[in-house]
Amino acid sequence: MEFRVPDLGEGIEQATVVRLLVGEGDSISIGQELVELETEKATIAVPATGAGKVEKLLAKPGDKVRVGSKLLAMSAVGDVSAKSKQEPTPLPSSEPIQTPVYDSRSQISPVALAKPQVANGALVPAGPSTRRLARELGIDLALVTGTAPSGRVTQDDVKSFVRNLSKLPARDGAKPQAALPDFSRYGPIEKKQFTALRGAIAKNLTLSWNAAPQVTQHDLADITDLEAGRKRFVEAAPKGSPKVTMTVLAVKACVAALKAYPQFNASYDAASGEHGELILKRYFHIGIAVDTERGLLVPVIRDADKKNVSELARELNEMAEKARGGKLTPDEMRGGTFTITNLGGIGGTAFSPIINYPEVAILGMSRSSWQPVVRADKIEPRLMLPISLTYDHRVIDGADGARFAVRVAAMLADPVRLVLES
Length: 422
Description:
This protein is α+β, with helices and mostly antiparallel strands. 26% of the residues lie in helices and 25% in strands.
């Protein structure tokens, strides 16, 4: 029988073979890891679903494989799960959908052509996650060329279509972006291929930048008292307890602010109704940006409003370790409603983080520093933390952006208020 690439999770249809964990002639058992695959978001070790002997390797490190692609041939020994015997579900047959040429003279924006999602009278073949993404971006799937078998449209096809919109001739006659020059004319160069993760980061950030008009609000939080209390808490904690960081406390402050300003805990569906629709989320899943050797990963802490400081610290530490070890699963990076990114350990006084689309806001934290502050007509040294809130201006007005940042700063400045409001 043939062992094939299994379902890798919602919206993931392609991976890169990192390494093969077995060789030809090896005997394998059920659950034994056979191959490591790198997707856009994580490295996944794929286990055997049946026992047997490896007859032939059908893929090698570096190969790009899709769900259902053959990885190795094996002779079965004993019972094999029914799932491993099944061929992938055939995709609905359909003629490839051609993307119409965009007429620069037209007064109709491609984003406005959101419905219906049919081509030549037939439903466009696409999965539920792809249809949801198209709805969120206001894209008509009939305009998107499907690259999967039978012309099926994938999430990558939709993202590529959105990126290409910026390259189309503008209605005012502006020229499309010029190609890069030949830099080798001026000196030695080196070309380095992006990894799957680096490519995914580039795609997602471009998608976010193109889809949402983004504004950043900067503020300073006086964390003198909070930092002193945090240090006392860490020193008094039992040995082996997870370290409570300023990021953990920022999670508590942001959850409280999200409850006060629910439009920040939302997504905007431009394709729904005449004027679009705001989807307010009644749960609080907070993404935490983690710097790794492979690139930026954002694990999600689910139901952050229901966890105390120690629980948040433990989960954040575990997620960060998994992220740096390449052990995060795709599901552990999905479903976020708001993201926090902390560069304070590296440096900087301020920055403009990009929204983790389709969220509508993200909070950035820079390095805290001692600064002279006037308090009660006296100049005192205070530990000040720069915070930077980026938000989707389609959903959030500037005044509300300032209010949200001020509220977060006020809670970080007053530990008692932080405890009471979170």
